[in-house]
Amino acid sequence: MEQAEQEYFRQKLLEEKQALGERNDEADSATKPVELDQQSVGRLSRMDAMQGQAMALATRQRQQQRLRKLIAALRRIDEDDYGYCEDCGKPINPRRLEIDPATLFCLDCARARE
Fold first, then answer.
1. Structural domain boundaries of the chain?
2. What is the pLDDT of residues 60-78, one digit of tens each?
3. Which of 37, 69, 72, 76 fits as disulfide partner to 81, beta carbons 3.0 to 4.6 Å?
4. Could you give the angle at the alpha carbon of 63 between the alpha carbons of 41 and 95, nearest 5°?
């Protein structure tokens, strides 16, 4: 992969990483413990709040997983391993990297893993 392409994908990865960090900051307030005061929040409202908290925690876990993938992709760029399939070692199509710049596998290997 050419240096210009690597820099393009580095910028794309860094932008997504920054946006993900901002969303993580916003999600922190949604994962705070739910108050158990029955006077201020009714039973159904509290159950809704607890369900919302569980969904926020699941979202945060997915965001953390994505963040780890982005960091790993940036590391591969630094080590000149970026853009090559982890299974077969062939170059990953740039159009596939455009869709998901953190992908590890070419299309054929990704299909074989399904």
1. 3-82
2. 899 999 999 999 999 999 9
3. 76
4. 145
**pTM, full prediction:** 0.77
CA dihedral 47, 51, 56, 58 (to 10 degrees): 150
φ, ψ for residue 91, nearest 5 deg? -65, 140
pLDDT of the residue at 21: 85
Predicted confidence at residue 31, as pLDDT, reads: 57
Tell me how many degrees the CA angle 114-110-11 measures, rounded to the nearest 5.
135
